[in-house]
UniProtKB/TrEMBL annotation:
Residues 7-18 have a biased composition (Low complexity). Its main location: nucleus. One of its GO terms (biological process) is nuclear-transcribed mRNA catabolic process. This is Decapping nuclease.
Length: 426
């Protein structure tokens, strides 16, 4: 099968820790300052392989890691352009009312994560597929912030190439290393912007419908840890006696650029630093995680190779600088708490044999988005290009017109088709 390669120049293959591009308009800036340290043989190999394939004829995209071992692509420092909240009944609010504040726990807190599972837990109905709806509601309410500044009369209604959830991008970043779960991503071009929304695979639906009682309870543990470490108010304290309701969410909306792809995406944020001197969002945000305690070298290695990959990808994308992890035993008791700085994770894993590399994740995502741009040519809200991937296969796509897969709601299409002036703001 053919594989697709980006036409972007492959400038060098040295590894360097991922960093955000801070300069404005830094697109043309060389990111090869350390070129003299670059191993030449790899560059040679990659240039040849890039020349062998004609991207314009590509119907599939390879996910083989070795194809993405090149220089780290430009990834601009993500900028928060807004936020929204979902309340206990999953209602949308164009504000930060669900923001929570991180309260640092003891190093060995003995939190009981099983507490309240039976009697103080309201679980979101995950058979309800919300698709991009909340993000689109935010776009409609904040349209003026996003309108193209240079060419207000251009065909591009929004000043971005892609709109999606952060979680979908996380899946793309981890794809070259994923061996178990495939994905389906639906893409629709509307007024020059491509919207990407996940579709649940058959395998994922079966998994969801056949979860064991133990698995369901363990899914609660992560939310319970949040309750032990978050306060609703800046001067407040956590309330472990309260109800855990997974309908509630605070989501950041960030804008950034990956190579020549302008991205707008939203991600759920667990909490923020409560210090008034903390940096502005997203740098003040804290991601909370739970994980099984690490007792053996094998467990440590698996933690580095699999868990830290997912944690890194999820937080690196929106520029969340740290993850606070609660390590729990088999009974769901948090025995220790540790902070991981996203910028230090690549150092932490560097001695791990055959481990993941941030540059592979970012280059694959970048090439996937290029592939999507080349494929998704028809600009119509009811046309869906379905990109599908299964482990050990290439990414392929199929086209669907006016099908069950169409995901841009009528209210969104109508609102965005109106002239900007006729838009009444609340
Ligand atoms: O319906 C779907 N297939 C999806 C819905 C897939 C992915 C996301 N979502 C929606 C949900 O409405 C959720 O509120 O996106 C929101 C979160 O978006 P995200 O930040 O892009 O998603 P992700 O990075 O995968 O997850 C962040 C957090 C999770 O925390 P952990 O620490 O476990 O990664 O969002 C929560 C969860 O707490 N979360 C969800 N909440 C409700 N429904 C879902 C979901 N399907 N997925 C993750
Ligand atoms: Ca979390």
């Amino acid at each position: 099968m053919e594989h697709y390669r980006s036409r972007s120049p492959i400038s060098s293959s040295h590894s360097r820790p991922p960093a955000y591009e801070r300069e404005r308009g830094g697109r043309g800036r060389s990111h090869c300052e350390n070129q003299r340290f670059r191993p030449n043989n790899q560059r040679q190999h990659q240039s040849e392989s890039a020349a062998e394939h004609n991207p314009l004829n590509s119907r599939a995209l390879s996910t083989r890691r070795e194809l993405y071992e090149r220089d780290f692509p430009v990834y601009k420092q993500p900028v928060e352009v807004g936020s929204f909240s979902l309340d206990s009944e999953r209602r949308f609010f164009n504000d930060g009312r669900q923001m929570r504040y991180y309260v640092e726990p003891e190093r060995n807190p003995n939190f009981d994560l099983r507490d309240g599972y039976k009697d103080r837990f309201v679980k979101r109905d995950d058979s309800v597929k919300e698709k991009l709806d909340h993000v689109l509601r935010w776009v409609v309410a904040n349209r003026s912030k996003l309108n193209s500044r240079k060419t207000s009369a251009s065909s591009c209604a929004l000043d971005v190439d892609f709109v999606t959830w952060r979680g979908h991008l996380t899946k793309l970043l981890t794809t070259p290393y994923e061996t178990k779960e495939g994905w389906m991503l639906a893409a629709t071009k509307f007024r020059g912007t491509i919207y990407i929304s996940e579709v649940e695979t058959e395998a994922a639906r079966r998994e969801r419908e056949n979860r064991t009682e133990r698995h369901k309870e363990m899914m609660y543990w992560g939310y319970k840890f949040e309750q032990y470490t978050c306060a609703d108010n800046v001067h407040g304290a956590p309330d472990p006696g309260g109800v855990v309701n997974t309908n509630e969410a605070f989501c950041t909306v960030v804008q950034t650029r990956l190579a020549d792809h302008r991205l707008l995406f939203s991600g759920e944020v667990d909490c923020r630093d409560k210090d008034p001197g903390a940096p502005a969002p997203p740098a003040c945000y804290v991601e909370l995680k739970t994980s099984a305690e690490i007792c053996t070298p094998k467990q440590r290695s698996n933690f580095h190779r699999f868990k830290l990959l997912k944690w890194w990808a999820q937080s690196f994308l929106p520029g969340v600088p740290r993850v606070v992890a609660g390590f729990r035993d088999h009974e769901g008791v948090v025995v220790s708490v540790e902070t991981f700085h996203i910028s230090k994770i690549s150092q932490l894993i560097k001695n791990e044999y055959n481990c993941w590399r941030p540059t592979v994740c970012m280059n694959f995502c970048c090439d996937f988005l290029t592939f999507v741009k080349q494929t998704v040519t028809e600009d119509s809200p009811s046309v869906v290009y379905m990109f599908s991937w299964e482990p050990r296969r290439d990414v392929t796509f199929s086209v669907h017109r006016d099908s069950q897969f169409s995901f841009l709601p009528h209210w969104y299409v109508e609102e965005m088709t109106r002239r900007p002036n006729s838009h009444h703001q609340s």
